[in-house]
Write a structure and sequence with these properties.
With about 110 residues, this protein is α+β, with helices and mostly antiparallel strands. The protein is about 40% helix and about 15% strand. The protein has one domain. The protein contains 5 helices and 4 strands. Strands 3-2-1-4 form a 4-stranded mixed β-sheet. The chain is globular and about 30 Å long. The N terminus is likely disordered.
Amino acid sequence: MGLFGWLRRRRGEGDGRAATLDRASQRADLRHLEDFVGTRRGVEGYVEPRTAVTETTIVLVAADGEWTRRRIDGPGTARRLSRELAIPVYDAQVTGYPQRMREYRGR
């Protein structure tokens, strides 16, 4: 099956949105996010929108700038995760990323 056939087949899954080339969020992704929040302090979330290539992702940034990125099922999942883990979550397109994240990468 060619690429276009694969995309047509994927379009029929889930909520009818066009398919991306990325895999969907899995339970392991949520477990990783929960573990990250549970083992670091001052964690904030930054939701990155779905694109033609990637599914919706969330970047968690700890107080020291350490960060991780994982797929999520959408902004609704980010809001639910925010409530359950008691962390603030922002729209990365609106707020951008914190300076401490860039500083952590530079170390």
